[in-house]
Write a structure and sequence with these properties.
The complex is a heterodimer of chains A (about 220) and B (about 180).
Chain A (H helix, E strand, L loop, with lengths): L1 H21 L22 E2 L5 E2 L8 E6 L5 H16 L5 E7 L8 H11 L4 E4 L4 H6 L3 E2 L1 E5 L5 E5 L6 E3 L5 E3 L8 H10 L13 E3 L9
Parallel strand pairs in A: 3-4, 4-5
Antiparallel strand pairs in A: 1-2, 3-7, 6-11, 7-8, 9-10
Chain B lengths: L4 H14 L17 E3 L1 H10 L4 E7 L4 H18 L4 E7 L6 H14 L4 E5 L3 H8 L3 E2 L1 E5 L5 E5 L10 H14 L2
Parallel strand pairs in B: 1-4, 2-3, 3-4
Antiparallel strand pairs in B: 2-6, 6-7
Classes of the chains: A alpha+beta (about 220), B alpha/beta (about 180).
């Protein structure tokens, strides 16, 4: 009888472990990480100003990574609001880092420099040729935000706000759901600075699909 | 006439993709193509009307570079499998319904591509369309079997499982083998 109980216990334990590991990091939309995931370590990513950036360089209380792609009209649509967001937190312990990972020429460093100048980027913008950072965070669309708190745990991932903005072919910006009313990233940063959880922890980061190289598939 | 950088970019992308139309099988047709607007609910009804056929749905938009680049493959598949009607090929544009020039570009692109299958556009705000389709972005290809069941849902929503043209080919072959 005790043998049966032992086998049953082992079976239940294995089942719980399997169920737990399957859903350990996958979020509601993000298929790789969930809230609470650690900031992946990265080193010496080249930035548009000629410097390099490593995760160990990030000393601020709140770190925001935003995956960008120069060619993407959903990035261009919210670029102005991203710049304003960075300005809003000037003088506070917040670091915003733009990350590009696509291998298209128009998304690589030379084009990143032009794009940053054109849109007045006021934050560090790095290129991850290896695409490792994007893969580790499950970043699949641009623009896609990841907010980390002082403990470098993920507290928010998803869109900047609730009305994705698209730049049209005539250069105008169309807020698809009108003027944004829920500022997810701003609210998440404020909450993280106050040591509180984000009011909304995950949203769908809709936009242009990040193109991962097949050779790097895991 | 001065053009904005985004506009020039779109023209370049369309021009590059349009280059595929030089292939003999894909030579441009002169007949205009009018995108059929469908809401998500109407699209569900349309899908039900395809029952009895394998259906390949290509979700694309003129603003999506990879979609535009992949589109010729969909036309090639139509040439290979779609002409006898056993497999129905559908293009579903997710261009902004309120952006007239974008929709016009989309129709011109389809003409260049000789996309003589069923060409729809989703008459929804783009983020709403994504939500209703339960995708985060495009390109995406959905493939239904003859019973109307969604058998392949090919998206870019996982960095380690993004689909390729080969995945679309294999899915079609798989469903064809199963329907014999």
């Amino acid at each position: 009888m005790s043998q049966i109980r032992t086998r049953f216990f082992i079976a239940v334990s294995v089942a719980v472990l399997l169920a737990g590991s399957a859903g350990l990091y996958a979020g509601k939309y993000n298929q790789v990480v969930d809230i609470g995931a650690p900031l992946p370590q990265f080193s010496n990513l080249p930035a548009i100003d000629g410097s390099t950036l490593s995760s160990s360089d990030l000393k601020e209380d709140v770190v925001v990574l935003v995956f960008l792609a120069n060619h993407c009209p959903w990035v261009k649509g919210m670029d102005g609001d991203l710049v304003k967001l960075v300005d809003q937190f000037k003088g506070r312990s917040v670091r915003v880092v733009g990350v590009a990972v696509n291998h298209r020429e128009e998304d690589r460093l030379p084009a990143m420099k032009q794009h940053a100048a054109q849109f007045g980027y006021n934050f560090t913008y790095v290129y991850d040729e290896s695409q490792d950072l994007g893969r580790k965070l499950g970043a699949t669309h641009t623009p896609e935000y990841f907010v980390f708190n002082k403990q470098r745990k993920l507290v928010y991932t998803g869109a900047i706000y609730n009305s994705p903005a698209q730049m049209r072919t005539d250069g105008s910006v169309n807020y698809t759901r009108g003027i944004p009313t829920e500022l997810y990233v701003k609210d998440a940063i404020e909450a993280a600075l106050a040591g509180k959880p984000a009011p909304v922890a995950e949203t769908a980061a809709q936009g242009c699909t990040v193109e991962y190289e097949k050779t790097g598939s895991k | 006439m001065r053009r904005s950088i985004p506009e020039l970019g779109l023209i370049l992308v369309l021009a590059v993709a349009g280059g595929f139309a030089d292939k003999p099988a894909l030579r441009a047709q002169s007949k205009p193509i009018a995108l059929q607007p469908v809401t998500f609910a109407q699209w569900q009804q349309k899908l039900a009307g395809y029952r009895g056929h394998i259906v390949v749905v290509d979700f694309w938009a003129t603003w999506c570079g990879p979609c535009v680049e992949r589109f010729p493959h969909m036309v090639e598949l139509y040439q290979k499998y779609g002409k006898d009607g056993k497999i129905r090929f559908v293009s579903m544009s997710l261009d902004d319904p309120s952006d007239g020039p974008a929709l016009q570009h989309a129709e011109e692109f389809l003409v260049k591509q000789n996309a003589v299958f069923d060409d729809f556009r989703m008459d929804e705000i783009i983020p709403d369309a994504f939500e209703k389709l339960a995708i985060l972005g495009i390109p995406a290809v959905f493939i239904y079997d003859g019973s109307g069941k969604l058998r392949y849902r090919l998206t870019g929503d996982n960095p380690n499982r993004q689909f390729t043209n080969e995945d679309v080919d294999n899915a079609i072959k798989d469903l064809l083998a199963g329907s014999k």
